[in-house]
């Protein structure tokens, strides 16, 4: 698991400053990765199963509504990155923002992936985004 | 040890009666080991009535107390009162000026008297040790020597201390000018051997000696060690004259006594056979770190408070992108000599393989490091190491502090003290005396003061 997240987050390069590497690899990457996957899954469930099935809202199933959730998800993923790095008190470095931005992009990906996997279970939005 | 000591008590006493009074170097050399306890018994002719013979009892007491913790069982202070010491302790004149020796030794005696050691005993050393009270000895220091001994022979004194007053958890402190005058010029080359023999006669396995050197103004007659020149120099001296505290005892007791009593004042020091616990050390990943490296320990990410790290994982290193890491050392528990930056700079070594790691600087804590919120605030000294080349796998690296004779010893040594005013504050054959100590207490191979194991490894 740690190895997977390490691979995923080191696609943009090794952590900076190098002295913080153990904290990033052992704590921050797994935390941020799991939180972001959980967040994306929750957002997908809310969009497809809560709003567009249980609540039976009929006017929130278009592509633009899905994009609103996608963007909110990405923003939250960015803040998860900032929150986790600051709570671990890593040395300040611009890498914190690069890593958070990368996490936002990963958030977009996870949201898209879960959407494709789970949209069929929704009554009102089974064809969103496509 | 107790059996062998107490068993031949009767013949020993008999021998003691026979031998008392014949206390000379020729005796020491002539006697074989069987006669040893005799010397032990003759040693304490206590002048104060009722004073217990300090040989057997403290040993029994100290055996019960675990070594290494709590106060010392016994501290014996020996003040040499031969004629050569009179200049340090001149009788108080009209100007009421005292010497630095008087000031210092009186203060030291008072500190020993206030110390937590269970028993404190005081002796004047003439040809034998004479038991004094604290008040008596302090008075001697302040008011001058009443009946100076003609001379005292250093090997004999050392032998007495090691034979009769050596006990676990106890130390003997000998205060003297350590001017050892051999009988004739032919004996000079054997000074170190004489000292070695004297200290080695009872073969104490953990014998340690700490030497603290001081210099004091001197007002009186100076007796040069060399008999070839003038026998004495009256109205001496224009220069300061060195005197020494030798702390003799088991390694652990000497270390604790030094730390408690002798580290407060600046002094020249040399230590033989004293062993020190490894100082707390750690790599510092957020203090003057350069290049791509991090703690290689598996639990480094936990960053437990107070944790220490000794593995450097290097992800990228080259001549253009060197790695620099700092090791923090807390040397508070070591004596001043080993905390001295000049000593550390000269004697700290990095032993490594397959890498060009080397020490680039050694520096002490500053206000900035002490007040920092980082881990560097725990350390008194820092060693910065630079690496530009690394082997393929993990390699052990050792940061070693060598135990070298400090430079002051040779600076304070003279081969001829018959002209002390020109020679300056030097002692005749001091380095030979210390050679003799080192042969006994230093061991075959001098162990380093401490060794800090580090690991250099490529990052995974």
Residue-averaged pLDDT of chain A: 89
Number of E-type strands of chain A: 0
Largest interface, counted by CB within 8 Å of the partner chain's CB: A-B, 12 and 15 residues
Gap from first CA to last CA of chain A: 32 Å
Strand content of chain B: 25-35%
The biggest beta sheet of chain B is recorded as: 7 strands, mixed
Secondary structure class of chain A reads: mainly alpha
Radius of gyration from the alpha-carbon trace of chain B, in angstroms: 25 Å
Number of helices of chain B: 16
Approximately how much beta-strand content do the residues of chain A carry?
Answer: under 5%
Strand order of the largest sheet of chain B: 3-2-1-4-8-5-9
Helical coverage of chain A, percent range: over 70%
Distance between the amino and carboxyl termini of chain B: 56 Å
Secondary-structure element order of chain A, as H and E? HHHH
The percent of residues in helical segments of chain B reads: 25-40%
Largest sheet of chain A: none
How many domains of chain A?
Answer: 1
Please identify the structural class of chain B as seen in this structure: alpha+beta
Specify Rg of chain A, calculated over alpha carbons.
16 Å
- Stretches of chain B where pLDDT is under 50 for at least 5 consecutive residues are 1-10, 12-67
Tell me what the structure shows.
The complex is a heterodimer of chains A (130) and B (460). Helices cover 70% and strands 0% of the residues of chain A. Chain A is mostly helical and 130 residues long. With 460 residues, chain B is an alpha+beta fold. In chain B, helix 6 (100-114) links the parallel strand 1 and strand 2. The termini of chain B are far apart. Chain A binds chain B through residues 14, 17-23, 25-27, 91, and chain B through 285-286, 289, 291-295, 297, 300-301, 303, 313, 315, 459. Chain A: Keywords: Membrane, Transmembrane, Transmembrane helix. Chain A: The chain crosses the membrane at residues 28-51, 63-83, 95-118.
């Amino acid at each position: 698991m740690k190895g997977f997240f390490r691979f995923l987050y080191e696609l943009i390069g090794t952590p900076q400053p190098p002295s913080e590497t153990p904290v990033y690899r052992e704590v921050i990457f797994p935390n941020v990765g799991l939180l972001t996957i959980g967040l994306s899954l929750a957002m997908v469930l809310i969009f497809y199963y809560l709003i567009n099935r249980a609540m039976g809202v009929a006017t929130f199933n278009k592509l633009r509504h899905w994009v609103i959730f996608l963007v909110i998800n990405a923003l939250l993923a960015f803040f998860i990155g900032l929150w986790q790095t600051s709570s671990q008190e890593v040395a300040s470095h611009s890498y914190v923002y690069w890593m958070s931005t990368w996490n936002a992009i990963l958030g977009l990906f996870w949201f898209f992936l879960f959407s494709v996997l789970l949209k069929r279970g929704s009554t009102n939005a089974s064809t969103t985004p496509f | 040890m107790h059996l062998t000591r107490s068993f031949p008590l009767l013949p020993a006493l008999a021998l003691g009666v026979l031998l008392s009074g014949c206390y000379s170097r020729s005796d020491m050399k002539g006697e074989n080991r069987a006669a040893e306890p005799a010397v032990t018994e003759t040693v304490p002719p206590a002048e104060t009535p009722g004073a217990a013979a300090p040989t057997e009892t403290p040993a029994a007491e100290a055996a019960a107390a675990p070594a290494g913790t709590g106060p010392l069982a016994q501290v014996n202070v020996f003040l040499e009162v031969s004629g050569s010491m009179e200049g340090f302790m001149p009788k108080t004149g009209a100007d009421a000026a005292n010497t630095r020796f008087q000031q210092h030794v009186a203060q030291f005696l008072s500190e020993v008297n206030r110390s937590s050691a269970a028993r404190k005993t005081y002796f004047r050393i003439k040809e034998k040790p004479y038991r004094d009270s604290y008040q008596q000895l302090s008075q001697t220091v302040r008011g001058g020597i009443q009946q100076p001994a003609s001379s005292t022979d250093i090997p004999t004194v050392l032998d007495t201390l090691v034979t009769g007053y050596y006990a676990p958890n106890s130390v003997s402190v000998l205060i003297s000018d350590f001017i050892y005058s051999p009988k004739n010029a032919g004996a000079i080359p054997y000074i170190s051997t004489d000292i070695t023999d004297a200290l080695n006669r009872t073969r104490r396995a953990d014998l340690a000696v700490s030497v603290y050197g001081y210099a004091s103004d001197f007002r009186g007659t100076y007796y040069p060690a060399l008999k070839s020149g003038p026998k004495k120099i009256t109205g001496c001296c224009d220069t300061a004259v060195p005197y020494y505290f030798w702390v003799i005892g088991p390694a652990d007791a000497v270390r604790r006594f030094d730390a408690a009593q002798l580290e407060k004042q600046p002094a020249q020091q040399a230590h033989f056979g004293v062993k020190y616990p490894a100082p707390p050390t750690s790599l510092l990943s957020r203090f003057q770190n350069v290049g791509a490296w991090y703690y290689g320990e598996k639990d480094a990410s936990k960053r437990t408070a107070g944790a220490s790290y000794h593995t450097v994982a290097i992800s990228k290193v080259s001549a253009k992108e060197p790695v620099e890491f700092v090791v923090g050392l807390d040397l508070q528990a070591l004596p001043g000599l080993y905390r001295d930056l000049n000593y550390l700079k000269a004697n700290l070594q990095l032993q490594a393989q397959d890498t060009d790691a080397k020490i680039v600087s050694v520096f002490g804590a500053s206000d900035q490091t002490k007040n920092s919120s980082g881990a560097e605030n725990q350390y008194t000294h820092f060693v910065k190491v630079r690496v530009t080349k690394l082997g393929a796998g993990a390699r052990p690296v050792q940061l070693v502090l060598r135990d070298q004779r400090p430079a002051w010893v040779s600076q304070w040594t003279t081969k001829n003290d018959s002209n002390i005013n020109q020679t300056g504050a030097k002692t005749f054959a001091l380095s030979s005396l210390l050679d003799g100590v080192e042969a006994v207490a230093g061991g075959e191979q001098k162990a380093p003061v401490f060794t800090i194991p580090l690991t250099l490894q490529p990052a995974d």
